[in-house]
Design brief:
disordered C terminus; 64% helix; 86 residues; 5 helices; single chain; mainly alpha
Length: 86
Protein backbone atom coordinates (compact mmCIF):
# COMPACT_ATOMS: atom_id res chain seq x y z
CA UNK A 1 0.00 0.00 0.00
CA UNK A 2 2.18 2.82 -1.27
CA UNK A 3 -0.66 5.31 -0.83
CA UNK A 4 -1.12 4.63 2.89
CA UNK A 5 1.38 7.26 4.15
CA UNK A 6 -0.23 9.80 1.82
CA UNK A 7 -3.71 9.00 3.14
CA UNK A 8 -2.44 9.20 6.73
CA UNK A 9 -0.89 12.58 6.00
CA UNK A 10 -4.16 13.77 4.42
CA UNK A 11 -6.08 12.62 7.50
CA UNK A 12 -3.56 14.39 9.75
CA UNK A 13 -3.97 17.54 7.64
CA UNK A 14 -7.75 17.42 8.05
CA UNK A 15 -7.35 17.03 11.82
CA UNK A 16 -4.86 19.89 11.98
CA UNK A 17 -7.17 22.09 9.90
CA UNK A 18 -9.85 21.54 12.55
CA UNK A 19 -7.37 22.49 15.28
CA UNK A 20 -6.45 25.68 13.40
CA UNK A 21 -10.14 26.55 13.07
CA UNK A 22 -10.71 25.88 16.79
CA UNK A 23 -7.76 28.14 17.61
CA UNK A 24 -9.06 30.86 15.28
CA UNK A 25 -12.50 30.75 16.89
CA UNK A 26 -11.14 30.83 20.45
CA UNK A 27 -8.45 33.52 20.15
CA UNK A 28 -9.12 36.72 22.00
CA UNK A 29 -7.67 39.16 19.47
CA UNK A 30 -7.08 39.08 15.74
CA UNK A 31 -3.40 39.78 16.33
CA UNK A 32 -2.78 36.69 18.48
CA UNK A 33 0.07 34.59 17.09
CA UNK A 34 -0.36 31.00 15.96
CA UNK A 35 0.88 28.67 18.72
CA UNK A 36 4.25 27.02 18.04
CA UNK A 37 2.73 23.55 18.38
CA UNK A 38 0.39 24.24 15.45
CA UNK A 39 3.24 25.66 13.38
CA UNK A 40 5.40 22.61 14.14
CA UNK A 41 2.69 20.21 13.00
CA UNK A 42 2.09 22.25 9.83
CA UNK A 43 5.80 22.21 9.01
CA UNK A 44 5.96 18.46 9.66
CA UNK A 45 3.02 17.87 7.32
CA UNK A 46 4.64 19.99 4.62
CA UNK A 47 7.42 17.39 4.45
CA UNK A 48 4.88 14.69 3.55
CA UNK A 49 2.49 16.75 1.41
CA UNK A 50 3.03 19.66 -0.97
CA UNK A 51 3.62 22.86 0.99
CA UNK A 52 1.08 24.78 -1.09
CA UNK A 53 -1.62 22.20 -0.29
CA UNK A 54 -0.88 22.36 3.45
CA UNK A 55 -0.81 26.16 3.43
CA UNK A 56 -4.07 26.43 1.50
CA UNK A 57 -5.91 23.94 3.74
CA UNK A 58 -4.67 25.64 6.93
CA UNK A 59 -5.18 29.15 5.52
CA UNK A 60 -1.52 30.08 5.89
CA UNK A 61 0.87 31.78 3.52
CA UNK A 62 3.10 29.26 1.79
CA UNK A 63 6.13 31.52 2.25
CA UNK A 64 5.54 31.69 6.02
CA UNK A 65 5.31 27.91 6.16
CA UNK A 66 8.55 27.61 4.18
CA UNK A 67 10.35 30.07 6.46
CA UNK A 68 9.19 28.18 9.54
CA UNK A 69 10.52 24.97 8.03
CA UNK A 70 13.90 26.57 7.34
CA UNK A 71 14.09 28.17 10.78
CA UNK A 72 14.48 24.94 12.68
CA UNK A 73 13.52 21.33 13.00
CA UNK A 74 9.84 20.49 13.24
CA UNK A 75 8.42 18.05 15.71
CA UNK A 76 9.03 14.39 15.09
CA UNK A 77 7.58 13.28 11.77
CA UNK A 78 5.78 10.39 13.46
CA UNK A 79 2.90 12.84 13.96
CA UNK A 80 2.52 12.74 10.21
CA UNK A 81 3.04 9.02 9.69
CA UNK A 82 1.51 7.79 12.94
CA UNK A 83 -1.67 5.73 13.03
CA UNK A 84 -4.92 7.55 12.47
CA UNK A 85 -7.64 6.77 15.02
CA UNK A 86 -10.93 5.43 13.62
Amino acid sequence: MADEPFHQAEAALAELAEQFEDWRRSRTTGQERIPPSLWDRAVALSTALPRARVARRLRLRSTDLRKRGLAGPATVATEVAGPVPD
